[in-house]
Design a protein that fits this description.
Length: 126
């Protein structure tokens, strides 16, 4: 079955960097766009970033543009999220998702994401 396992979260200070990874199995990874979402305590889930299957196009939420970079390694079936200049408002559980709907860019609502990981917690202290 399809599995997505995130890693790389942790407790950091404002201004620090983290690199999240999402290792996938059970699907033909190179055929799908991938995305990262996050959910802060007491808040709605929000879109963070997406990358198309060919690694040609990316899309970012305005709140992370210029600080976060999404990338993928199709040979390793893994998608990454490099997070720089972290802010306390970046504190959230970060989850990766597979776009099985196939429309670019993926919908920020998360509609069309057929598979989700359980997430990894990122905590940014001030």
């Amino acid at each position: 079955q399809v599995q997505l396992v995130e890693s790389g979260g942790g407790l950091v200070q404002a201004g620090d960097s983290l690199r999240l990874s999402c290792a996938t199995s059970g699907l033909t990874f190179r055929m799908y766009a991938m995305a990262w979402f996050r959910q802060a305590p007491g808040k709605e889930r929000e879109f963070v970033a997406a990358i198309d299957r060919r690694d040609d196009n990316t899309k970012y939420a305005d709140s992370v543009k210029g600080r976060f970079t999404i990338s993928r390694d199709n040979a390793k079936n893994t998608v990454y999220l490099q997070m720089n200049s972290l802010k306390p408002e970046d504190t959230a559980v970060y989850s990766c998702a597979v776009d099985t709907f196939g429309e670019w860019p993926p919908k920020a609502s998360g509609y069309g994401m057929g598979f989700w990981g359980k997430g990894t917690l990122v905590t940014v202290s001030s």
